[in-house]
Amino acid sequence: MTTHATPLAEAAPTKPAPAEKPGRDRYFDLLRALALFRVVLYHLTGWAWLPLVFPSMGVMFALAGSLMARSLKRPAVQVIRGRMRRLLPPLWLLGVVGVTGMVLQGWGPDADGHPGWWLLHLTFWIVPLSDPPYAEGLPGVHGFIGENWAADLAGPLWYIRAYLWYVLLSPVLLKALRAVPALTILAPIALAAAFEQGYVTLPGERIPSALTDFSTFGACWILGMAHQEGILRRLPRYIVPSVAPVIALAGLWYALHHDFGTGNDLDSMPLAQALWSFGTVFLLLHLSPSWTEWPRRLRPLAGTITLLNSRAVTIYLWHNTCILIAATLWDRLWGFPLLEQNVPGLLESVWPVLALVWVLIGCCVLAFGWAEDLAAKQKPRLWPTSEPEVRIHGSRRHAAHGG
Protein backbone atom coordinates (compact mmCIF):
# COMPACT_ATOMS: atom_id res chain seq x y z
CA MET A 1 0.00 0.00 0.00
CA THR A 2 1.34 3.46 -0.88
CA THR A 3 0.65 6.68 1.01
CA HIS A 4 1.10 10.31 0.03
CA ALA A 5 3.55 12.28 2.13
CA THR A 6 2.15 15.22 4.06
CA PRO A 7 3.82 18.64 3.93
CA LEU A 8 4.96 18.09 7.50
CA ALA A 9 6.50 14.77 6.59
CA GLU A 10 8.21 16.35 3.60
CA ALA A 11 9.72 19.02 5.78
CA ALA A 12 10.82 16.67 8.54
CA PRO A 13 14.47 15.63 8.39
CA THR A 14 14.92 11.98 7.54
CA LYS A 15 17.84 9.65 7.89
CA PRO A 16 19.28 8.50 4.59
CA ALA A 17 18.41 4.93 3.74
CA PRO A 18 21.33 2.55 4.07
CA ALA A 19 22.98 1.70 0.79
CA GLU A 20 21.75 -1.61 -0.58
CA LYS A 21 24.47 -4.19 -0.88
CA PRO A 22 24.88 -5.20 -4.51
CA GLY A 23 23.38 -8.55 -5.37
CA ARG A 24 24.91 -11.48 -7.15
CA ASP A 25 26.25 -11.16 -10.65
CA ARG A 26 24.70 -14.14 -12.45
CA TYR A 27 27.23 -13.93 -15.27
CA PHE A 28 29.99 -14.48 -12.71
CA ASP A 29 28.03 -17.36 -11.21
CA LEU A 30 27.79 -18.98 -14.64
CA LEU A 31 31.53 -18.58 -15.27
CA ARG A 32 32.38 -20.10 -11.88
CA ALA A 33 30.08 -23.07 -12.48
CA LEU A 34 31.61 -23.68 -15.93
CA ALA A 35 35.08 -23.40 -14.44
CA LEU A 36 34.33 -26.04 -11.80
CA PHE A 37 32.82 -28.44 -14.32
CA ARG A 38 35.79 -28.02 -16.65
CA VAL A 39 38.26 -28.62 -13.79
CA VAL A 40 36.58 -31.91 -12.91
CA LEU A 41 36.43 -33.03 -16.55
CA TYR A 42 40.07 -32.11 -17.15
CA HIS A 43 41.37 -33.88 -14.06
CA LEU A 44 39.44 -36.99 -15.08
CA THR A 45 40.42 -37.08 -18.76
CA GLY A 46 43.69 -35.14 -18.93
CA TRP A 47 42.65 -33.76 -22.33
CA ALA A 48 45.22 -31.09 -23.11
CA TRP A 49 42.82 -28.98 -25.18
CA LEU A 50 40.35 -28.39 -22.34
CA PRO A 51 42.34 -25.54 -20.70
CA LEU A 52 42.40 -23.88 -24.12
CA VAL A 53 38.63 -24.09 -24.45
CA PHE A 54 38.11 -22.58 -21.00
CA PRO A 55 41.00 -21.55 -18.70
CA SER A 56 39.22 -22.37 -15.46
CA MET A 57 41.90 -21.35 -12.98
CA GLY A 58 42.42 -17.95 -14.57
CA VAL A 59 38.66 -17.38 -14.56
CA MET A 60 38.28 -18.45 -10.92
CA PHE A 61 41.10 -16.18 -9.78
CA ALA A 62 39.68 -13.25 -11.77
CA LEU A 63 36.23 -13.68 -10.23
CA ALA A 64 37.76 -13.90 -6.76
CA GLY A 65 39.83 -10.79 -7.43
CA SER A 66 36.72 -8.87 -8.45
CA LEU A 67 34.88 -9.87 -5.29
CA MET A 68 37.91 -9.02 -3.19
CA ALA A 69 38.12 -5.53 -4.67
CA ARG A 70 34.43 -4.99 -3.94
CA SER A 71 34.90 -6.14 -0.36
CA LEU A 72 37.88 -3.84 0.18
CA LYS A 73 35.52 -0.90 0.41
CA ARG A 74 35.54 -2.03 4.05
CA PRO A 75 38.65 -2.06 6.30
CA ALA A 76 41.29 -4.39 4.90
CA VAL A 77 41.89 -6.32 8.13
CA GLN A 78 38.18 -7.05 8.45
CA VAL A 79 37.97 -8.21 4.83
CA ILE A 80 41.02 -10.47 5.07
CA ARG A 81 39.73 -12.02 8.29
CA GLY A 82 36.37 -12.67 6.65
CA ARG A 83 37.95 -14.26 3.59
CA MET A 84 40.12 -16.53 5.69
CA ARG A 85 37.09 -17.49 7.78
CA ARG A 86 35.26 -18.56 4.62
CA LEU A 87 38.24 -20.40 3.13
CA LEU A 88 39.82 -22.31 5.99
CA PRO A 89 37.07 -24.44 7.66
CA PRO A 90 36.47 -26.56 4.51
CA LEU A 91 40.24 -27.10 4.33
CA TRP A 92 40.36 -28.10 7.99
CA LEU A 93 37.61 -30.65 7.40
CA LEU A 94 39.58 -32.12 4.49
CA GLY A 95 42.65 -32.21 6.71
CA VAL A 96 40.86 -34.00 9.54
CA VAL A 97 39.74 -36.75 7.17
CA GLY A 98 42.87 -36.88 5.00
CA VAL A 99 45.60 -36.54 7.63
CA THR A 100 43.83 -39.04 9.89
CA GLY A 101 43.76 -41.55 7.03
CA MET A 102 47.44 -40.96 6.28
CA VAL A 103 48.44 -41.45 9.91
CA LEU A 104 46.40 -44.64 10.13
CA GLN A 105 48.36 -45.97 7.15
CA GLY A 106 51.69 -45.27 8.81
CA TRP A 107 52.53 -41.66 7.98
CA GLY A 108 54.28 -40.02 10.90
CA PRO A 109 57.03 -37.77 12.26
CA ASP A 110 59.80 -39.58 10.41
CA ALA A 111 58.31 -38.63 7.04
CA ASP A 112 60.50 -35.52 6.74
CA GLY A 113 63.51 -37.11 8.37
CA HIS A 114 62.99 -35.07 11.52
CA PRO A 115 59.95 -35.03 13.84
CA GLY A 116 60.17 -31.28 14.37
CA TRP A 117 59.90 -30.49 10.67
CA TRP A 118 56.95 -32.87 10.27
CA LEU A 119 55.03 -31.20 13.09
CA LEU A 120 55.91 -27.73 11.83
CA HIS A 121 54.78 -28.51 8.30
CA LEU A 122 51.49 -29.88 9.62
CA THR A 123 50.57 -26.31 10.58
CA PHE A 124 50.14 -25.61 6.86
CA TRP A 125 46.95 -27.67 7.13
CA ILE A 126 45.72 -24.95 9.51
CA VAL A 127 46.94 -21.86 7.67
CA PRO A 128 48.24 -22.86 4.20
CA LEU A 129 50.89 -20.21 3.71
CA SER A 130 52.77 -23.01 1.97
CA ASP A 131 51.68 -26.35 0.54
CA PRO A 132 50.37 -28.68 3.28
CA PRO A 133 52.40 -31.92 3.50
CA TYR A 134 51.04 -35.32 2.60
CA ALA A 135 52.20 -38.92 2.62
CA GLU A 136 53.59 -40.22 -0.65
CA GLY A 137 53.22 -43.76 -1.94
CA LEU A 138 50.52 -44.93 0.43
CA PRO A 139 48.76 -48.16 -0.48
CA GLY A 140 45.18 -47.90 -1.59
CA VAL A 141 42.12 -49.63 -0.21
CA HIS A 142 41.59 -52.55 -2.57
CA GLY A 143 38.61 -52.07 -4.83
CA PHE A 144 37.72 -48.69 -3.33
CA ILE A 145 40.53 -46.16 -3.72
CA GLY A 146 43.78 -46.45 -5.64
CA GLU A 147 47.37 -46.25 -4.50
CA ASN A 148 49.01 -42.96 -3.56
CA TRP A 149 45.58 -41.51 -2.80
CA ALA A 150 47.08 -38.82 -0.55
CA ALA A 151 48.74 -37.19 -3.55
CA ASP A 152 45.36 -36.89 -5.27
CA LEU A 153 43.76 -35.53 -2.12
CA ALA A 154 46.48 -32.90 -1.74
CA GLY A 155 46.56 -32.01 -5.44
CA PRO A 156 44.08 -29.10 -5.28
CA LEU A 157 45.69 -27.50 -2.25
CA TRP A 158 48.00 -25.30 -4.31
CA TYR A 159 44.91 -23.28 -5.26
CA ILE A 160 44.01 -22.69 -1.61
CA ARG A 161 47.56 -21.57 -0.86
CA ALA A 162 47.66 -19.26 -3.87
CA TYR A 163 44.21 -17.86 -3.07
CA LEU A 164 45.26 -17.10 0.50
CA TRP A 165 48.32 -15.19 -0.66
CA TYR A 166 46.27 -13.21 -3.17
CA VAL A 167 43.88 -12.26 -0.38
CA LEU A 168 46.75 -11.15 1.88
CA LEU A 169 48.34 -9.10 -0.92
CA SER A 170 45.11 -7.61 -2.25
CA PRO A 171 45.16 -4.34 -0.24
CA VAL A 172 48.63 -3.57 -1.64
CA LEU A 173 47.69 -4.73 -5.14
CA LEU A 174 44.59 -2.56 -5.12
CA LYS A 175 46.56 0.54 -4.16
CA ALA A 176 49.11 -0.19 -6.87
CA LEU A 177 46.33 -0.80 -9.40
CA ARG A 178 44.77 2.57 -8.69
CA ALA A 179 48.14 4.30 -8.96
CA VAL A 180 49.63 2.57 -12.02
CA PRO A 181 46.99 0.30 -13.59
CA ALA A 182 48.81 -0.99 -16.67
CA LEU A 183 52.09 -1.67 -14.86
CA THR A 184 50.33 -3.49 -12.01
CA ILE A 185 48.29 -5.70 -14.34
CA LEU A 186 51.26 -6.66 -16.51
CA ALA A 187 53.81 -7.14 -13.69
CA PRO A 188 52.92 -10.82 -13.03
CA ILE A 189 53.30 -11.66 -16.73
CA ALA A 190 56.68 -9.93 -16.77
CA LEU A 191 57.66 -12.04 -13.76
CA ALA A 192 56.49 -15.19 -15.57
CA ALA A 193 58.69 -14.27 -18.55
CA ALA A 194 61.64 -13.63 -16.22
CA PHE A 195 61.21 -17.05 -14.63
CA GLU A 196 60.88 -18.69 -18.05
CA GLN A 197 64.06 -17.10 -19.39
CA GLY A 198 66.04 -17.86 -16.24
CA TYR A 199 66.53 -14.22 -15.28
CA VAL A 200 65.05 -14.99 -11.84
CA THR A 201 66.01 -18.16 -9.96
CA LEU A 202 65.33 -18.99 -6.34
CA PRO A 203 66.55 -21.87 -4.15
CA GLY A 204 64.27 -24.46 -2.62
CA GLU A 205 60.76 -25.43 -3.65
CA ARG A 206 58.18 -23.62 -1.54
CA ILE A 207 59.01 -20.00 -2.39
CA PRO A 208 59.57 -20.62 -6.13
CA SER A 209 56.30 -22.57 -6.26
CA ALA A 210 54.36 -19.71 -4.68
CA LEU A 211 55.95 -17.09 -6.92
CA THR A 212 55.35 -19.20 -10.02
CA ASP A 213 51.64 -19.41 -9.19
CA PHE A 214 51.55 -15.65 -8.60
CA SER A 215 53.26 -14.95 -11.92
CA THR A 216 50.96 -17.37 -13.74
CA PHE A 217 47.57 -16.21 -12.44
CA GLY A 218 48.30 -12.91 -10.69
CA ALA A 219 47.39 -10.88 -13.77
CA CYS A 220 43.96 -12.58 -13.85
CA TRP A 221 43.34 -11.73 -10.18
CA ILE A 222 44.34 -8.11 -10.81
CA LEU A 223 42.18 -8.01 -13.96
CA GLY A 224 39.23 -8.98 -11.79
CA MET A 225 40.06 -6.14 -9.43
CA ALA A 226 40.38 -3.75 -12.37
CA HIS A 227 36.97 -4.85 -13.62
CA GLN A 228 35.41 -4.14 -10.22
CA GLU A 229 37.15 -0.76 -10.02
CA GLY A 230 35.77 0.26 -13.42
CA ILE A 231 39.24 0.56 -14.94
CA LEU A 232 38.43 -1.79 -17.83
CA ARG A 233 35.21 0.08 -18.62
CA ARG A 234 37.17 3.28 -19.10
CA LEU A 235 39.17 1.76 -21.95
CA PRO A 236 37.98 2.50 -25.49
CA ARG A 237 35.69 -0.32 -26.60
CA TYR A 238 38.01 -1.45 -29.39
CA ILE A 239 41.07 -1.94 -27.15
CA VAL A 240 40.19 -5.24 -25.50
CA PRO A 241 38.92 -7.06 -28.65
CA SER A 242 42.08 -5.92 -30.41
CA VAL A 243 44.67 -6.66 -27.74
CA ALA A 244 43.32 -9.66 -25.81
CA PRO A 245 43.33 -12.15 -28.75
CA VAL A 246 46.91 -11.17 -29.60
CA ILE A 247 48.05 -11.91 -26.03
CA ALA A 248 46.15 -15.21 -25.94
CA LEU A 249 47.53 -16.27 -29.33
CA ALA A 250 51.04 -15.44 -28.12
CA GLY A 251 50.50 -17.94 -25.31
CA LEU A 252 49.16 -20.52 -27.76
CA TRP A 253 52.10 -19.97 -30.11
CA TYR A 254 54.52 -20.45 -27.22
CA ALA A 255 52.79 -23.65 -26.16
CA LEU A 256 52.73 -25.11 -29.66
CA HIS A 257 56.45 -24.42 -30.04
CA HIS A 258 57.23 -26.19 -26.77
CA ASP A 259 55.72 -29.62 -27.50
CA PHE A 260 52.20 -28.85 -26.33
CA GLY A 261 50.11 -32.01 -25.89
CA THR A 262 48.89 -34.56 -23.39
CA GLY A 263 51.32 -34.68 -20.49
CA ASN A 264 52.81 -31.34 -21.52
CA ASP A 265 49.91 -28.91 -21.60
CA LEU A 266 49.40 -25.40 -20.25
CA ASP A 267 49.73 -26.57 -16.65
CA SER A 268 53.39 -27.40 -17.27
CA MET A 269 54.03 -24.14 -19.20
CA PRO A 270 53.57 -21.23 -16.77
CA LEU A 271 54.30 -18.48 -19.31
CA ALA A 272 51.95 -19.94 -21.93
CA GLN A 273 49.31 -20.44 -19.24
CA ALA A 274 49.73 -16.86 -18.05
CA LEU A 275 49.34 -15.38 -21.54
CA TRP A 276 46.44 -17.59 -22.64
CA SER A 277 44.55 -17.14 -19.36
CA PHE A 278 45.13 -13.39 -19.34
CA GLY A 279 43.89 -12.91 -22.90
CA THR A 280 40.82 -15.09 -22.40
CA VAL A 281 39.86 -13.56 -19.06
CA PHE A 282 40.36 -10.09 -20.52
CA LEU A 283 37.77 -10.90 -23.19
CA LEU A 284 35.34 -12.53 -20.75
CA LEU A 285 35.43 -9.51 -18.45
CA HIS A 286 35.05 -7.17 -21.41
CA LEU A 287 31.90 -9.03 -22.46
CA SER A 288 30.56 -9.08 -18.89
CA PRO A 289 26.80 -8.44 -19.11
CA SER A 290 26.34 -8.24 -15.29
CA TRP A 291 23.10 -10.17 -15.06
CA THR A 292 21.13 -9.38 -11.91
CA GLU A 293 18.53 -11.98 -12.95
CA TRP A 294 18.96 -15.19 -14.89
CA PRO A 295 18.32 -14.98 -18.65
CA ARG A 296 15.27 -17.01 -19.62
CA ARG A 297 17.28 -19.76 -21.32
CA LEU A 298 19.41 -20.32 -18.23
CA ARG A 299 16.61 -20.35 -15.67
CA PRO A 300 16.19 -24.15 -15.77
CA LEU A 301 19.86 -24.42 -14.73
CA ALA A 302 19.66 -21.77 -12.01
CA GLY A 303 19.42 -24.27 -9.15
CA THR A 304 22.39 -26.31 -10.35
CA ILE A 305 24.53 -23.24 -10.92
CA THR A 306 23.60 -21.89 -7.49
CA LEU A 307 24.55 -25.22 -5.92
CA LEU A 308 27.94 -25.23 -7.65
CA ASN A 309 28.63 -21.68 -6.48
CA SER A 310 27.43 -22.32 -2.94
CA ARG A 311 29.69 -25.36 -2.62
CA ALA A 312 32.59 -24.26 -4.85
CA VAL A 313 35.30 -24.78 -2.21
CA THR A 314 33.95 -28.18 -1.15
CA ILE A 315 33.70 -29.38 -4.76
CA TYR A 316 37.19 -28.17 -5.60
CA LEU A 317 38.80 -29.70 -2.52
CA TRP A 318 37.20 -33.13 -2.85
CA HIS A 319 36.86 -33.63 -6.61
CA ASN A 320 40.29 -35.24 -7.09
CA THR A 321 39.57 -37.85 -4.45
CA CYS A 322 36.15 -38.49 -5.99
CA ILE A 323 37.80 -39.04 -9.38
CA LEU A 324 40.23 -41.59 -7.91
CA ILE A 325 37.45 -43.46 -6.11
CA ALA A 326 35.20 -43.45 -9.21
CA ALA A 327 38.00 -44.73 -11.46
CA THR A 328 38.88 -47.47 -8.95
CA LEU A 329 35.27 -48.60 -8.63
CA TRP A 330 34.72 -48.52 -12.39
CA ASP A 331 37.84 -50.58 -13.03
CA ARG A 332 36.34 -53.38 -10.92
CA LEU A 333 33.80 -53.93 -13.71
CA TRP A 334 36.57 -55.37 -15.87
CA GLY A 335 36.45 -58.34 -13.53
CA PHE A 336 33.05 -59.36 -14.94
CA PRO A 337 33.70 -61.38 -18.14
CA LEU A 338 30.18 -60.68 -19.45
CA LEU A 339 30.82 -56.93 -19.44
CA GLU A 340 34.40 -57.23 -20.68
CA GLN A 341 33.37 -59.33 -23.68
CA ASN A 342 30.18 -57.51 -24.65
CA VAL A 343 30.59 -53.84 -23.74
CA PRO A 344 34.33 -53.08 -23.67
CA GLY A 345 33.63 -49.67 -25.22
CA LEU A 346 31.42 -48.77 -22.27
CA LEU A 347 34.09 -49.83 -19.79
CA GLU A 348 36.66 -47.69 -21.62
CA SER A 349 34.40 -44.63 -21.86
CA VAL A 350 35.04 -41.66 -19.58
CA TRP A 351 31.41 -40.53 -19.52
CA PRO A 352 30.03 -43.16 -17.10
CA VAL A 353 33.00 -42.46 -14.85
CA LEU A 354 32.27 -38.72 -15.06
CA ALA A 355 28.68 -39.37 -14.01
CA LEU A 356 29.91 -41.47 -11.08
CA VAL A 357 32.38 -38.72 -10.14
CA TRP A 358 29.55 -36.20 -9.87
CA VAL A 359 27.50 -38.62 -7.79
CA LEU A 360 30.43 -38.90 -5.38
CA ILE A 361 30.91 -35.12 -5.43
CA GLY A 362 27.24 -34.83 -4.51
CA CYS A 363 27.88 -37.14 -1.57
CA CYS A 364 30.77 -34.90 -0.47
CA VAL A 365 28.50 -31.86 -0.76
CA LEU A 366 26.01 -33.57 1.55
CA ALA A 367 28.69 -34.78 3.96
CA PHE A 368 31.04 -31.79 4.10
CA GLY A 369 29.39 -28.81 2.42
CA TRP A 370 27.84 -27.53 5.64
CA ALA A 371 31.31 -26.26 6.60
CA GLU A 372 30.98 -23.52 3.96
CA ASP A 373 27.70 -22.37 5.52
CA LEU A 374 29.21 -22.25 9.00
CA ALA A 375 32.22 -20.39 7.62
CA ALA A 376 29.86 -17.81 6.08
CA LYS A 377 27.91 -17.56 9.37
CA GLN A 378 24.81 -19.00 7.74
CA LYS A 379 22.45 -21.77 8.75
CA PRO A 380 23.85 -25.09 7.49
CA ARG A 381 22.02 -26.52 4.45
CA LEU A 382 22.45 -29.91 2.84
CA TRP A 383 21.66 -29.04 -0.77
CA PRO A 384 21.66 -25.26 -1.37
CA THR A 385 19.99 -24.76 -4.75
CA SER A 386 18.67 -21.36 -3.68
CA GLU A 387 20.38 -18.54 -1.87
CA PRO A 388 20.01 -18.19 1.90
CA GLU A 389 17.91 -15.42 3.29
CA VAL A 390 19.25 -13.22 6.05
CA ARG A 391 17.31 -10.81 8.20
CA ILE A 392 18.32 -7.17 8.20
CA HIS A 393 16.35 -4.86 10.53
CA GLY A 394 13.36 -7.19 10.48
CA SER A 395 13.19 -7.60 6.71
CA ARG A 396 14.35 -10.44 4.54
CA ARG A 397 16.76 -10.33 1.68
CA HIS A 398 18.99 -12.76 -0.18
CA ALA A 399 22.57 -12.95 0.96
CA ALA A 400 25.10 -11.68 -1.57
CA HIS A 401 28.21 -13.74 -2.10
CA GLY A 402 31.67 -12.45 -1.40
CA GLY A 403 30.98 -9.99 1.37
Descriptive overview:
The protein has 403 residues and is mostly helical. Helices cover 63% and strands 2% of the residues. It has helices at 7-11, 26-45, 50-53, 56-71, 76-104, 115-122, 149-154, 157-179, 181-197, 206-229, 239-256, 270-287, 302-310, 312-331, 337-342, 344-348, 350-368, 370-375, and strands spanning 389-392, 395-398. A two-stranded antiparallel ribbon has the order 1-2. A hairpin with a 2-residue loop joins β1 and β2 (395-398).
Can you lay out the helices and strands and say which pair or pack?
Elements: H1 7-11, H2 26-45, H3 50-53, H4 56-71, H5 76-104, H6 115-122, H7 149-154, H8 157-179, H9 181-197, H10 206-229, H11 239-256, H12 270-287, H13 302-310, H14 312-331, H15 337-342, H16 344-348, H17 350-368, H18 370-375, E1 389-392, E2 395-398
Antiparallel strand pairs: 1-2
Helix pairs in contact: 2-4, 2-13, 2-14, 2-17, 4-8, 4-10, 4-12, 5-8, 5-14, 8-9, 8-10, 9-10, 9-12, 10-12, 11-12, 14-17
